[in-house]
Amino acid sequence: MSAKTYEVRTYGCQMNVHDSERLSGLLEDAGYVRAPEGTAEGDADVVVFNTCAVRENADNKLYGNLGRLAPMKTKRPGMQIAVGGCLAQKDRDTIVKRAPWVDVVFGTHNIGKLPVLLERARIQEEAQVEIAESLEAFPSTLPTRRESAYAAWVSISVGCNNTCTFCIVPALRGKEEDRRPGDILAEVETLVSEGVSEITLLGQNVNAYGSDLGDREAFSKLLRACGAIEGLERVRFTSPHPRDFTDDVIAAMAETPNVMPQLHMPLQSGSDTVLKAMRRSYRQERFLGIIEKVRAAMPDAAISTDIIVGFPGETEEDFEQTMHVVREARFANAFTFQYSKRPGTPAADMEGQIPKEVVQARYERLVALQEEISWSENKKQVGRTLEVMVAEGEGRKDGATHRLSGRAPDNRLVHFTKPEQLVRPGDVVTVEITYAAPHHLLAEGPTTGVRRTRAGDAWEKRTAAPAEKAGVMLGLPGIGAPAPLPAPTGGCSIV
């Protein structure tokens, strides 16, 4: 009898992407195999939705997808559907009332229970709804199926202690809980020993790390400690909060060679009035001051941000303050969002909700300005020689253009001419930038250097293995230490 297949569909932020790697690992540990690429919708034996609750259309997207699967499930006895993540934590029993064909509903705190709940639902022939109110096991202690052989997420904390009025995440993810530094570093060392050369430290409010440990400089110490790990070439982190961005973190970034000159710093609004209404504990002057210090310490740093347009009460003058900060900060890129009312958040009941057409017009002006700045900043890269880590799946047109793609140290996307010698994801090439577009760079000349890496070896080894063994399984040993990089789709990286 062949093993049952599974599919995990992920919505939202990097934290959800990381959780989905754990869900995949748990299912494979329980004997399931990942459904092959190209499997038709509804043909997997188990379909798991890892949901987001940040955007307004999250509910509609979930129930639309569940509705499409209902007739397929009727035709396939034994097929199971599970719903987890932030929306499951929020809606709980509502999901099985609206979609009674769902077999399992689980929350953000008990993802480790998924295989057990699926088996219980199968035996009892009824939906299993289990939502824990607090974290049962830190996700990094669970098995994982990493999507990349050369890059990995490393979660350093879960939860958030902020009370932003637009955000429901703290209510769903809970208060911040930090991992011990030794456990984090042991996981990083284990990953590096397996061939990983780039890690991204992950937290809902990543630079608040240490508040649960009683050490205000714990995050900068962690960055410096990562710098001492042999074989670890690139360290990134997301997403920080301006309130907790201290000078010791800037110094650690500048003085630790493998910490990349890249910073994602959510602005949300440039108006002090709106920031106060959002309960963001910084103001425009403080934000621009951080940018100035970062640029003084790392002149080549690429800085990105999140911005919300149309928050309740936002006036034209408030919006112009946001435009002012964008002009001053000159972000390499920005994730821009139209304000989305979320039930259960204070902002949802605020007076001064902005008409859709006004929000749309402001949003288009902001996007146009940021596009202009992104292109201008990218043009400054023309003529520079950069080391690019070759990536997998970054260049959708690479086959047609005979190029490969990868990321520069500052995380800019670079498409480069495919060299004659074999280059693998995880390897590093040296190229000269010849052209800049708003969202990518081109290196159209010959590659001037290729460095084969252990990360490339790891990728080659993994792709040579049978498909059902392609996942990289990793869990922490019982003695307490050891346990990657798409962009968010508008999820709870908004902090």
Write a structural description.
It contains 15 helices and 21 strands. The longest helix has 24 residues, at 356-379. With 495 residues, the protein is an alpha/beta fold. Helix 8 runs parallel beside helix 9 (247-255) and helix 12 (316-329) packs parallel to helix 13. The strands form 5 sheets. Strands 19-20-17-16-15-18-21 form a 7-stranded mixed β-sheet. Strands 2-1-3-4-5-6 form a 6-stranded parallel β-sheet, sandwiched between helices.
* SS field, number of helical segments: 15
Radius of gyration: 23 Å
What's the count of strands? 21
Query: Biggest sheet: strands, sense, closure?
Result: 7 strands, mixed
Spatial shape: globular
Strand arrangement, largest sheet?
19-20-17-16-15-18-21
| Residue runs with pLDDT of under 50 for 5 or more positions | 467-495
β-sheet strand percentage: 15-25%
Structural class: alpha/beta
- Overall pLDDT metric: 89
Helix content: 25-40%
First-last Cα distance: 47 Å
Question: What is the compact description of this entry?
Answer:
Helix content is 34%, strand content 18%.
Attribute tags:
34% helix; 495 residues; disordered C terminus; alpha/beta; 7-stranded mixed β-sheet
Question: Secondary-structure map with pairings?
Answer:
Elements: E1 5-10, H1 14-29, E2 33-34, E3 46-51, H2 58-75, E4 80-85, H3 86-91, H4 93-98, E5 104-106, H5 114-124, E6 128-130, E7 151-155, E8 157-158, H6 169-173, E9 177-178, H7 181-193, E10 198-202, H8 218-226, E11 234-238, H9 247-255, E12 262-264, H10 272-278, H11 284-297, E13 302-309, H12 316-329, E14 333-338, H13 356-379, E15 385-390, H14 398-401, E16 403-407, E17 413-417, E18 428-432, E19 435-436, E20 441-443, E21 449-451, H15 454-464
Parallel strand pairs: 1-2, 1-3, 3-4, 4-5, 5-6, 7-10, 10-11, 12-13, 13-14, 17-20
Antiparallel strand pairs: 8-9, 15-16, 15-18, 16-17, 18-21, 19-20
Helix pairs in contact: 8-9, 12-13
